[in-house]
Amino acid sequence: MSRQLSDVEDVLQNALNKHGLSVVPLLQEIQEHFRYLPEEVLRMLSRKTGIPLIEIYHAATFYNSLSLTPRARHQIKICAGTTCHIRGGGKLIEEIFQVLGIRPGEITPNGEFMLETVNCLGCCAFAPAMVVDGKYYGNLTPGEVRKILSKLRERAALMEK
Amino acid sequence: MNTNTRSKLAIPDDLTKRREMLKDRLDPKKQRIVVCGDTGCTVCGSRELVPVIEKVLQERGLAKKVELKIAGCLGFCENGPLVLVFPGAVFYQQVQAEDAEEIVEKTVLQGEIIERLLYTDSADGRKITCAYDIPFYKLQKRVLLETGWYIDPLDIDDYIAHGGYAALAKVLGEMTPEGVIAEMKKAGLRGRGGAGFPTGLKWEFCRASAGDEKYILCNADEGDPGAFMDRSLLEGNPHAVLEGIIISAYAVGAKEGIIYIRIEYPTAVLKIEQAVRQARELGLLGRDILGSGFDFEVAISKGAGAFVCGEETALIRAAEGKVGEPRQKPPYPADVGFGGKPTVINNVETFVNVPLIINRGAAAYHEIGTESSGGTKIFCLVGKVKNSGLVEVPFGTTLRQIIFGIGGGIKNGKRFKAVQTGGPSGGCLPEEMLDLKVDFKDLAQAGSIMGSGGMIVMDEDTCVVDVARYFLQFLKSESCGKCFSCRVGIQRMLEIYERITTGAGSIEDLDLLEELAVTVKDASMCGLGQTSANPVLSTLRYFREEYLAHVRDKRCPAGVCRPLFRYSIDKELCIGCGSCAEQCQAEAIVETEEGSYSINPELCTRCGVCMEICVADAIIKG
Ligand SMILES: Cc1cc2nc3c(=O)[nH]c(=O)nc-3n(C[C@H](O)[C@H](O)[C@H](O)COP(=O)(O)O)c2cc1C
Ligand code: FES
């Protein structure tokens, strides 16, 4: 963990002041800071509050938006909602696997891309849809997904240079 | 009056006065450009559009004269980004930033219509100017949704100008809590969150429950994949939700409320937070509301994303900041709810109906709808239908009217196969059922449910076996795992589906599925398990032939289950361009000696890219 320990203390204390011993809001607050839930921080939380670690992990694994794994540079969220499913969303997931070699929940070895599925992005009229780094794409085909991914990779390669 | 003053409204009269001073906002001649700011339209570029219109208005010195509004969902998502120009409700679709100048120059300044941006009726090719004349809107009854066209969701004064909080003033000033409950009963209002429980009765139970400390919990968890009615209401008219909540609190005798909203809806969260802030500033929340002696406060709690949290007993736990697992009922939330205290839980859309009933009167309200279900219902009409979007219709409207009237029928000239209502716990209904009247009772009898209002249309290219498998997969991952029948039963059913969709299924599997489904339905604790049988039983009942094709002939007629169909190339049609072979990731396409191409089924992954790109339509699926 790159952050100073005192930093973590502050985050935890802040969250506790705000939410008391409510586990889920505490975890949401921690995730907002670290973009995921680092194990050390959860252990500290448990020690500090006396909330059993198992209870903390129970909540962390129950809710879809809480994550125990670090985020990648590019976060791909593919809609796995019903409308997207019947309009070919599954093919997009397959295409991403072909191109990046990752399945939902996985991260590319270089930490560049992470693939997640969400239940509905609320833009079913443009199904199948996905969100990459907060940008929405709709009416997608596997071919277009491939194009979008290769653009992102090109840009990433340029940045590295 | 300087409407920026946030002086408290001490008595109902203050509200009336404030509305009076805002009345020029209702001027029908006022020029106004309304841009849809909903997620759907944002996908196709409405966010880029707004600053451009703003700039053009500035440059022409029109910023004061012409009002620019960013509305919630305008409904016709299919054709976004949408722009409405008032007066006249001129409807422009697929508007891009480069059209902004022309809209201001021509339509706003000279009243001239831009043909190119108009909607073309798919039936007769006619161009339609006014939104109200477009069949998609004309065939609806938009009593809840239409205010979204006029109200800026971020401005409480806009809501007040349009009659907002008048129902609250009336309730606090003239009605007893019992009177309010009686009005809800008379209106025939039933919960819109899924089960359709009579709202008045629910409030009555909670009111009668012992104790002084009671709660209102607004269910804005909306976890159905393929539905966004509640989000749209929260984004387009948050004060109406809030007004309904405050009225219900008065009726029940609650002093505190919680809005539980999913974190995946960031815009809706912002808007409802703003609405609560503004209402508090004006004294519509807090102590002694409008001088009535009634105190009420609302807090917002953000959901962390779990479908089962929408179930009411799970919702209570989630709102308490715990893991949202359901529990056995009874005791019902009306007796033991939030913090162990009596609690009323209602859905967002249910609350929005409340002020409407008070304003119109229960009798007038109940003129719309059926005997047992008063009012309208918002559906999220999506899938393989021509006109996708949010539609609002009276209870009792037939599926055919919704899908073929408002929805314009099936996309791309395909055949209708099924409509799925009620989300993952709903059922698939076939063509024979299209004349079914949509209401809680009839849908349940047909083996589906109303649910919260998802309506997903499927065509001949959709495999219903795959759809049922999909829902079970969804329910499996969302089941909390607490009760055995749900946890294991769904898993076993899913395994059978895995077999069937990969060609390893047998006819006996179909009977086993049915038996399992009935058991899970009977033995599970909460609504998730109890309704998980619906997708299975409804498809088995109406689409047995399709199941038989999978298990007996090892064939997926819709061409969805990958091991059960193939792609091939029609040599007659193939023009030998080779673009399919170029694009094939699996390198399954090779050139033949005659100069056309062929697909190696062993290597083919059935991704369908070749079919998508073939200009000669030479790729055959079957
Ligand atoms: C698995 C499951 C999920 C549910 N999800 C929601 C939901 O997302 N939104 C909702 O309002 N009701 C949902 N419900 C229904 C609620 O339990 C409850 O009946 C409803 O919020 C009551 O409000 P109403 O009477 O206004 O409909 C769900 C029920 C079940 C069993
Ligand atoms: S199902 Fe994918 S956006 Fe709704």
Fold and architecture overview:
Chain A is of the alpha+beta class and 161 residues long. Chain A has 7 helices and 4 strands, in the order ααααβααβββα. A 4-stranded mixed β-sheet of chain A has the order 2-1-3-4, with helices on one face. The longest helix of chain A has 19 residues, at 142-160. Chain A is elongated and about 50 Å long. The mean pLDDT of chain A is 90. Chain B is an alpha/beta fold and 622 residues long. Chain B has 5 domains: 25-138, Glutaredoxin, CATH 3.40.30; 177-366, NADH-ubiquinone oxidoreductase 51kDa subunit (Rossmann fold); 376-462, Ubiquitin-like (UB roll), CATH 3.10.20; 465-551, de novo design (two linked rop proteins), CATH 1.20.1440.230; 566-621, Alpha-Beta Plaits (2-Layer Sandwich), CATH 3.30.70. Chain B is 39% helix and 14% strand. Chain B has 25 helices and 19 strands. Chain B is globular, with a radius of gyration of 27 Å. The N and C termini of chain B lie far apart (70 Å). The mean pLDDT of chain B is 94. Chains A and B meet through helix 2, helix 4, helix 5 and helix 6 of A and helix 2, strand 9, strand 11, strand 15 and helix 18 of B. FE2/S2 (inorganic) cluster is lined by residues 79, 81-84, 120-124, 127, 129 of chain A.
Labels describing this entry:
heterodimer, A: 161 residues, alpha+beta, Glutaredoxin, 2 domains, four-stranded mixed sheet, 7 helices, 4 strands, 52% helix, 11% strand, B: 622 residues, alpha/beta, Rossmann fold, Ubiquitin-like (UB roll), 5 domains, five-stranded mixed sheet, 25 helices, 19 strands, globular, binds flavin mononucleotide, binds FE2/S2 (inorganic) cluster
Task: Offer a concise description of the structure.
The complex is a heterodimer of chains A (161) and B (622). Chain A is α+β, with helices and mostly antiparallel strands and 161 residues long.
Query: Would you identify the CATH H-level superfamily of the largest domain in chain A?
Result: Glutaredoxin
Roughly what is the average pLDDT of chain A, rounded to an integer?
A: 90
- The second-level CATH architecture of the largest domain in chain B is 3-Layer(aba) Sandwich
Distance between the termini of chain A: 27 Å
Got a strand count of chain B? 19
The CATH class of the largest domain in chain A: Alpha Beta
What is the helix tally of chain A?
A: 7
Low-confidence stretches of chain B: none
